[in-house]
Amino acid sequence: MSPARRRKMVDREHPSLSLVRQCALLGVSRSSIYYRPRAASEEDLSLMGEIDRQYLDTPFYGSRRMKAWLERRGMGVSRKRVQRLMRAMGLRAIYRRPSTSRRSPEHQVYPYLLRNVRITEPNQVWAADITYLPMARGFLYLVAVMDWHSRYVLTWRLSNTPRSGSGAGSGGRLLHRGAGGGSEPGPPEVFNTDQGSQFTSLEFTQVLKERGVRISMDGKGRYQDNIFVERLWRTVKYEEVYLKAYASVLEAQRGLADYFRFYNRLRPHQALGYRTPAEVFHGDHGVVEGDSNERRCSPEQGTESLAGEPGFSLNSALILSN
């Protein structure tokens, strides 16, 4: 069992076992239980905003090229600092890497199932991803689930941490509620993600297996394998996030809720024949303000772990798992 999972087993309110005793039994240090990360400095936040914008244009930039790009813009910074910031943002240069690490048996990695597969209808393939979200002061992480065929955003969540956690939580709601077909969500035939620990965890994959969903995962460094969600991040950031520079979590929550309603119901897509994602997902039934179908065309949303509690689960964040 990984140290992170052992730390999550510590119960601060245990009636008979002290924290000292629990740490000793689990083999974790007490300092790791009490540790709280420091807030990023204003300078770091500014650099992270610049890195995030550039990464959308050049996802193949690693820390060396990103450092050189920042320096050309007059921002002197060490490569080590760029590496630290990109790691905090969950950014890695997109290119093929040799397989040099051994994976834990707890976190099985599944093959990519969508190469040369024609996606022809809603609920055939869903995809999920997580991205860094800059604000005026600080940052959040945004996770979303999208229907590949229609580009319809089924659900999204905000969090202040990208870590995976211990339970499916609200993640199963979308799968358990949906009956399939073109008018209601899921379950899909295939669910595609990257190989991040948020998606390889047993809690996430178990929910999918219980519903008979086939699990697909991008190849390492394969930017194109989840291209529709990557395009969604670019669209959301350039059309909403960068323009608003949210000052608070509540402002981000409200702004994104409004944007995703607009994205699903009103924003035509060239690739969809200038129809909206909601029209394609729900079978070409247009939705207007005040329509009785308006609610079902709004993606589920939420905010997770924004008070900084330990043990946050992206299984809880996704409406179908981790």
What is the chain-wise order of helices and strands?
A: HHHHHHEEEHEHHEHHHEH
The helix-and-strand class reads alpha/beta
Helix content, binned percent:
25-40%
Per the CATH scheme, the topology name of the largest domain is Nucleotidyltransferase, domain 5
Give the distance, in angstroms, between the N- and C-terminal Cα atoms.
18 Å
Question: Total helix count?
Answer: 13
Number of domains: 3
Number of strands: 6
| Main CATH class of the largest domain | Alpha Beta
> What's the name of the CATH homologous superfamily of the largest domain?
Ribonuclease H-like superfamily/Ribonuclease H
Tell the overall outline: globular
CA radius of gyration? 20 Å
How are strands sequenced across the largest beta sheet? 5-4-1-2-3-6
Q: How does CATH name the architecture of the largest domain?
A: 2-Layer Sandwich
Relative strand content: 5-15%
Q: Please tell me the overall pLDDT.
A: 77
Extract low-pLDDT stretches. Answer: 96-104, 164-171, 178-183, 286-296, 304-322
What's the short version?
By secondary structure, the protein is an alpha/beta fold. The protein has 13 helices and six strands.
